Amino acid sequence: MNKTININLSGIIYHLDEGAYENFNAYINAIKDRLSHEEGGAEIIADIESRIAEIFSMRLSEGKRQVVTQEDVDFIISTLGRPEDFADTAEETDPPQTETKRRFFRNPDETVIGGVCSGIAAYFNIDVVWIRVLFLVLLFFTGIGFITYIILWAAIPEAKTTAQKLQMRGEPVNLGNIEKKFKEFEAQGKAFGKKFKNTPRGFFDFITNTIGAILGFILKFFGVVLAIIGSVIAFTLIVALIGVFGSTWNLGGFDFIDINGYIYGMDGAQALFGSGWRLMALRVGTLLTLLMPLFALVVFLAKLFGKSVSNARLLSFAGIASFIIGLILIFISAGSLATDFKERATEVEKLPIPGNSLVLEADILEESTGFLFDIDDDQLRVENVRFNIERTNDSTAHLELRHSASGRNHAEARQRAQRFDFKTEQSGETLRLSEYFSVPEDALYRGQDLKVTLRLPVGTTVFLDPSLENIIYDLENVQNLWDGDMLGHTWIMTDRGLDCADCPIIEYYSAEDLEENIEQKLEELELELKRLKDR
Amino acid sequence: MKIENTKAQMRKGVLEYCILGILSNGDAYASDIIEHLKKAELIVVEGTLYPLLTRLKNAGLLEYRWEESTSGPPRKYYSLSTEGKAFQKELKSTWDALQKAVEHITTSK
Q1: I need a labelling partner for A194 at 20 to 30 A (CA). Which of A308, B9, B14, B96 fits?
Q2: Mutating which of B31, B32, B49 best tests the A interface, going by the most A Cβ atoms within 10 A?
Q3: Residue A196's pLDDT is what?
């Protein structure tokens, strides 16, 4: 089944088959180009079109046909003449050298995969080898080459007709050139025939054939490598897709694929996006954006193994469309999420801590995933606790909890800041703190953090257990030790701040101090010498 | 110097005169004119003629009328205007003189 294209000539509709149309169109455009700058050009063109219509009508009714074919177009060209013949004979001028616009086409005559590289080479009029090397370099060092190639492959049409092949190389589309191309093509065909018929005779032939074989092998090798890379990407994408809709697939009591959402950050996504339309938009958006590379891969792999996909164009169009829609959905979802972080509020809670000698410990969270927040038993576990010790003028110690959260507006942020759960436990002298705090799952993660400050009156002693290492944050102390170095020691609150009660006394000298010391010593020695001399 | 070019130049020189000559024998539409010229081997392809006809018409030497056709779109029938007839006569005398002169020169020894 061939496609036909309808054209209107002098008010009569003709059906042209696709190939005939391409050539006819090139022909009539070449004539129009030539005549349009002439006086009365439009009228001449109308006369010519009318004549063409007459010939078409005549030939169609003679042959009892409906569709104008290439033969009819050839007849038109031979009867009316080449575009050059249309110049007014009385005023012979050189044909205007109009710059023919180059167009991007894939080159079906020189292909490794889809003819993208040779099309680009033809467009820029450079050797195709450079473009191929560039793509390979891009492929192996960044992977961008692959995506770029796929996109170009889908977006650039193939140069099917001779006219398009001429446009691809920026050669003017006229009959002379078309004829030239035909001859070249025929010559190529003959050369090919020879190559296969002849066995290598001379030494030179042998060398070229060998090189050809090696090159062929290398290209095939690259093809296989590409196929492997493509399959890996495809597999990853599919797994990621399942991850997006991550859940346990339980088939007949057997855990088919057990993917915990948080492996792919889905718990995190849910904690951020909630379970409403925003999460749906994110999921669907992610799915849609992943469809394009999947489609592309399907087509690519099929082509690599020599199978043509009948709906490749449709697939690539659908892929691009879904990619764009997917991106829009993701942006809408993320944009809406961002407004939820607009205002910030803090809620303060105070817990009295009796006793003037304390031992501080922390519950080490064993199942920490290393994420800032996680969904754990319908609670959102936030591992964002910062512990500090400060002096108070009150007579007793207390623990101050400052919980901050963001929200769409101040009221919402305040409400959210009120909802948190931080576990502390005091038994005798020992005060156990938690490494995390919980908020209800429906509060969602909105940048919650918790500052825990132990305020001690002067004279209170406190032992810092090494288990505090994950939450201790920038403690001021007299010795000016790093947080980590403070653990495992007993500290006492003084007027000057926390003072270490059992740290080994280390005298620190700076270079300046040392210099000063030496100078001082020298001065003393000199005085001593003077004194001895005076005696 | 190519012989083909010279031949083409010679043919082109007399083409206008020939068209006027054909039309002086009666009205004709483009294809008729082409048919005559082709028979006389004055033109090879039709394309050459359309710009020429339009130019002659725009110069006021030709007139045309539309006539319905049974096969295809309506046809333009050309005829000589009064100016065209005078033009044709003048060309004819020039041509006759020229012909004699050429014959005289090329055959005389």
Answers
A1: A308
A2: B49
A3: 43
